[in-house]
Amino acid sequence: MSLLAFNARVRREVTAQRPLAHLTTLRVGGPAEYYLEARGFRDVMDAAEACRQTGLPLSVLGGGSNLLIDDAGVPGVVVNLKQMKRVVPTEHRLLVSAGASLTSVVATCARAGIAGPEGLAGIPGTIGGALAMNAGGRFAEIGEFVHKVLWLSPQGTVRYLYREEIQFSYRKSSLQGGVVLEAILEGKRGEPAALLARMKQIMDQKLASQPYAAASAGCAFTNPPGQSAGKLIDLAGCKGMSVGGAQVSEQHGNFIVNKGAATCSDVLKLMGKVKKRVFEHHGIQLIPEVKAWPQPIELAA
Ligand code: FAD
Ligand code: EPU
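That is the input. Now the predicted structure with flavin-adenine dinucleotide docked in place:
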């Protein structure tokens, strides 16, 4: 379908062949066939409806902090939600639009005395991406703080889902596949000064153990039950291993960093080598955590 025809179906300006690498924290990959920045629910719903009518795939971009985009780019329509960033504190809850940054939401919760989300300090990306991925770590997962989520289903219906209607598990949620539009988060009551101090403590720990200044997509692999993939990769001697511009971080074994000119193909080859070496050393098959567009990652066993 032509750009003109697609444009006619959505109210926002759509661009063709829009580069995406700089919209991801790993900074690799080709362009979106079609790209638009949604200003509100209406734009997202229009784009989704146009995709259903035309058969084009729809991909939702948050902060791009868990994404590996193919060098050939992404067919169909990429909708960026970064302009939808409303954050409204209510009495003991917080209304947040999908494109709001998780870091700013975590800080707002702490200042408002909403306890729990401070455990998510230091996780980049947006609320929508965090809910889709059930982002978290040792201290908390975002699913714990959901009151309800406004969700556009793949079939095109929009409704609030309460926490008990959503499946959250390790780095997964049943919200994937649809579009998170906004959420209402909640927590226990806490003392703002103590929550802000806890945030800083967690952030300091992360800065000491993870390569925050480097271009990466966070942990490349999920942790096998009861184990740390980073530690397994480290013990298998993979730190510093590289393919092209992609390198296993010297600081944390589960981070693959872009030294400047990495391609998606470099990252995938390196992930394959790491997986193979970890299997040889530990007999454990690592599973990718990063989301790949347009095809899920398949590494040889
Ligand atoms: P994106 O990368 O843009 O997208 C990820 C997936 O979510 C895609 O499939 C996308 O389509 C989908 N998505 C995005 N927005 C929506 C939406 N509105 N509705 C539906 N689906 C959507 N993760 C952790 O869990 N814990 C950590 O401690 C952690 N530390 C990190 C540290 C660094 C330095 C980096 C770079 C990453 C880290 N990550 C961590 C990974 C990443 O930050 C999280 O997965 C984050 O929640 C992804 O959010 P995003 O907005 O960037 O999503
Ligand atoms: N370790 C090593 N070598 C390494 C890396 C880690 O020996 O190269 C050791 C550490 O010393 C520590 C243990 O392994 O004893 C665990 O390491 P860490 O505390 O860094 O936690 P992790 O299990 O590697 C997980 C999440 C991170 C999250 C942290 C903190 C996964 C895949 N990773 O890492 O999430 O930030 O806990 O909560 O679940 C992400 O998902 O992208 C991510 C960064």
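The first helix runs from residue 3 to 9.
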